Amino acid sequence: MTTLVTGATGNTGRHVVAELVRRGERVRALTRDPIAAARRLPSGVELVSGTHNEPDTLGAALDGVDRLHVTVTSGLAEVGPDLVKRAVDAGVRRITVVWGGAVGPVEQAVAASGVEWTRLEPQEFMSNTLTWAGTIVAEGVVREPYDFPSALVHEADIGAVAAVALLDDGHSGQVYNLTGPAPLTPSERIAILSEVAGRDIVLERITHEQAVERLMSTGVSRADADYVIGWYAAPTADSTTVDPTVERVLGRPARTFEQWAAEHAARFRPA
Ligand SMILES: NC(=O)c1ccc[n+]([C@@H]2O[C@H](COP(=O)([O-])OP(=O)(O)OC[C@H]3O[C@@H](n4cnc5c(N)ncnc54)[C@H](OP(=O)(O)O)[C@@H]3O)[C@@H](O)[C@H]2O)c1
Description:
By secondary structure, the protein is α/β, with parallel strands linked by helices. It folds into two domains: 2-122, Rossmann fold, CATH 3.40.50; 124-153 and 180-241 and 255-271, Rossmann fold (3-Layer(aba) Sandwich), CATH 3.40.50. 38% of the residues lie in helices and 16% in strands. It is built from twelve helices and nine strands. A seven-stranded parallel sheet has the order 3-2-1-4-5-6-8, sandwiched between helices. The chain has a two-stranded parallel ribbon with strand order 7-9. Helix 2 links the parallel strand 2 and strand 3 (46-49). Helix 1 packs across helix 6. It is globular. The relative contact order is 0.13. Bound molecules: NADP nicotinamide-adenine-dinucleotide phosphate (NAP). NADP nicotinamide-adenine-dinucleotide phosphate is lined by residues 7, 9-13, 31-33, 37, 51, 53, 71-75, 98-101, 122, 124-125, 128.
């Protein structure tokens, strides 16, 4: 059996790849940059050049593939249904998808695909914390407009749940809300990061608009920036409430933020 992983070099995709390889599965990783991917992904993974944002270029990538993992990247909504149709026509019999934060055309196409599917609905990724690394290392400061709790989930747990849904029976038609084991405010995360960074880190409050402009300065559109900062301004119940699904599906506790911080300690210390 072969699984095609899209978004394979990304925050969650590379953990899907690692977990499938760990379980002895044959993995084909789709990437726009196979050379860079070869440095990030385990050896033995078949690297295929391309992007799932252009389904009409995926002919060879879908040959002999039984299972497909979809990461919803920006711009995929327009072509998602075509991607799913081509995959099913090529013989794919099971699909997992990490939602794009809402149930859009890609997620709907997967649910209507006629084959087995599982939708992962992770709340906030712990990897978002890496956006703080620059100011923490340079100034010992984090600037955020809000200090509300978030039940952040470790991206490796998202990958592990996807691998289980791809390889084990009994997950078809399931929608998995994924959180970490504790709702944490930015202040609480900063206290944990201060431990691993070996320095006191302070939280400086900025305005909502300053946060939107900062996100736009990284190339994000006004609409997307308003959506993301708006999400932090009014967290949903799902994003602040711990859900036991990770532990139920994996049969072990969800990874903690302390574990994540220890794994990424070097990113928060001067080089
Ligand atoms: N961050 C959060 O808190 C959060 C929470 C819930 C849901 N989500 C959703 O999770 C998804 C992102 O997952 P992620 O963080 O694992 O992804 P990511 O790190 O952004 O990686 C996406 C990968 O997709 C590949 N790719 C192919 N075509 C692309 C394109 N046109 N644009 C961008 N990347 C492309 C890239 O790999 P190559 O360069 O190797 O081709 C990239 O490594 C988004 O839909 C987001 O809305 C995020």
